[in-house]
Amino acid sequence: MMKLYKLLSFSFLVATLTSCTFTENMYVNDNGSGKFSVDIDGSALMEMAGDQLGNQMGADAKKNIDSTFTFKQLIAEKQDSISKLSPEAQKEIKKLENFVFNIKMNGEQKQFLMNIATDFKSVSELQDILQSMSTLQKLEGGTAPATPFAGLGDNKSKLSYTYDGKKFTRKAIIDKQKLAEKPADSTADMSKMMFASSNYVIKYHFPKRVKKVSNPNALFSEDRKTITIQYPFTDYMENPDKLNFDVEFEK
Questions:
Q1: How many helices (H) and strands (E) does the chain have?
Q2: Which of 55, 75, 124, 241 has the most C-beta neighbours closer than 10 Å?
Q3: Contact yes or no for 178/128 (Cβ under 8 A)
Q4: Are 126 and 117 within 8 A, CB to CB?
């Protein structure tokens, strides 16, 4: 079995070398609890260069992979490095303890899928959760994110969600101080590679029928309980407030 960080390094390579589809999923229950996940589909690179990448990864990569681990395991393995971080950074990383990471790779089907997921008791628990991912970058000395999801928190905004049964809001506020900071070359280069032709899809599932969405590009499921909105990945990274919207529900 491949070591954890070898697998993560390979998944990061896939995410940065090809156009990917990032899908932010949320399932909300009547009581406001639910499940949040982010999926990355990097199958395009497997289609183009699966054999070459498999050779780089060795014999294990030629087998079908379906591997799952918790961020709690990752945090435990890197505890020495984490203890050297600031209290604020340690607090951010602790938010990720309940996330589960899954990676699937199938050479014959040219499939490469990654997923992180967590349950929540209230959508308010998800505040800045993607921004917490960027803190993982510090575990590798700041040279590269520890997972391909780490770059998702590097869009210089603060993200929050609210839900009261009548209305749901997704809101990102630009952090002007971070916006003024010059990014490290490695981060900028990574972002440019991912920007090119990737998409960011929001897919939210609600317990009630949706009356209206403030974003005119929203698509509805047949029962009007699921909305889907697709954005260029450049909007997510460079103009995150474009992804803000409100959802109102039928009575």
A1: 9, 12
A2: 75
A3: no
A4: no
Residues 6 or more apart whose Cβ sits within 8 Å of residue 177: none
- Using the Cα atoms of residue 151, residue 198, residue 116 and residue 57 in order, give the sign of their dihedral: negative
Task: List pLDDT tens digits, range 120-132.
Answer: 999 999 988 877 7
| pLDDT tens digits, one per residue of 115-164 | 999 999 999 999 888 777 777 666 655 444 456 676 676 788 889 999 99
> For residues 47 and 39, what is the distance between their CA atoms, to the nearest angstrom?
18
* Closest listed residue to residue 35, CA positions, set 90, 131, 99, 101: 99
Helices (H), the chain: 4-17, 43-57, 71-77, 79-82, 87-94, 129-135, 176-180, 185-195, 233-238
String of b and e for 196-230 (b: at least 16 CB within 10 Å)? eebbbbbbbbbebebeebebeebeeeeeebbbebe
Domain of 207 in residue numbering reads as 4-249
> Helix (H, G, I), strand (E, B), or coil: what is residue 241?
helix
- How would you classify the pairing of strands 219-220 and 226-232? antiparallel
- What's the number of domains the chain is made of? 1
